Amino acid sequence: MRAGGLNRLLAAAAAVPVMLIAAGCSSGSDSGSGSGDESGAAQKSGGASASTSPSAEPTVQAAAYGALPEACGVLSKKTLTALVPKAPAKGKEGASSDTAARASCSWSSLDNNGVKGSQFRWLNVSLVRFETDAASSGEQQAQEYYAKQVQDVAATAGAKNPKSQAVAGTGDQATTVRYDLKKSEGAFKQQTVVSRVENVVVTVDYNGAGLAGDKTPDAAALVKSAELAAKEAVASVEAANGEGAGDGSSSPTPSKPSSTAPSKSPSKSPSASASASAAKKS
């Protein structure tokens, strides 16, 4: 090969590394630029995220009702005379460590008809108020308690032919559970009306029996009386919390609003079986 051709070949070979180095530098420069842009975008994104205020945590709805009426004053004299005609003028107040959260009252009547036997009636009104806590609202707790009450009454031991029906115009929810209960004293007709108004559950137990040979009372009439009593008791709860003035058929005497301190979950209110037990003792 001639000297001139050899020199040109060496010169061309020497130029290749220079081009590769230049290309490598150019590639590195582009990559660095892209990384910088992404980093800047991430910083901007992170800054925007950090400046966003955290969403407010949902709050539990406060209890609507903060008071209960006096349990023995939720029914008018007219109603008591119709349902328990021979009962003492004053009902028997149930024991409670906090009457602002749980209260009850009962009346017992025995109408003696001599050799024809006697008519027995037992009436109980139970009031349970739930306070809102961190876990759930008072109304939600009342709804759960209401549903459990209805189930428990329908499952009463010894209950014959239990029947449940919804009741209109009595609080936010109301159900009547009725059944027969055979006892040594006679055949008892049991009616329990469970009602809920806001965060309060009202349970009315009413049973009747013809004793010592007297005829068994009419179940339909007893159911109607129990439902009217429940409606009146619910109206008393509303009146005790500044709503309405009853349903016009009674003159409830609400108590003054009491403490709204949170209360523990109440124990089960008197059951239908307790009603029959009270009847037996009478």
Q: By helix and strand content, what is the structural category?
A: alpha+beta
Instruction: Please give the share of residues in helix.
Output: 25-40%
According to CATH, the fold-level topology of the largest domain is Protein Transport Mog1p, Chain A
Into how many domains do the coordinates divide?
2
Q: Record the strand order, biggest sheet.
A: 1-2-3-7-6-5-4
Low-confidence stretches: 9-36, 38-51, 246-282
Task: Give the helix tally.
Answer: 5
Give the topology string: H per helix, E per strand: HHEEEHEEEEHH
Which descriptors apply to this entry?
7 strands, 282 residues, globular, 5 helices, Protein Transport Mog1p, Chain A, 2 domains, seven-stranded antiparallel sheet, disordered C terminus, alpha+beta
Offer a quick outline of the entry.
With 282 residues, this protein is α+β, with helices and mostly antiparallel strands. It is built from five helices and seven strands, in the order H-H-E-E-E-H-E-E-E-E-H-H. A seven-stranded antiparallel sheet has the order 1-2-3-7-6-5-4, sandwiched between helices.
Describe the structure.
By secondary structure, the chain is an alpha+beta fold. The chain folds into 2 domains: 1-41; 71-281, Protein Transport Mog1p, Chain A (3-Layer(aba) Sandwich). The protein is 37% helix and 23% strand. It is built from 5 helices and 7 strands, in the order ααβββαββββαα. Strand 4 and strand 5 (173-182) form a beta hairpin. The longest helix is centred in the first third of the chain and has 49 residues, at 3-51. The N and C termini lie far apart (137 Å).
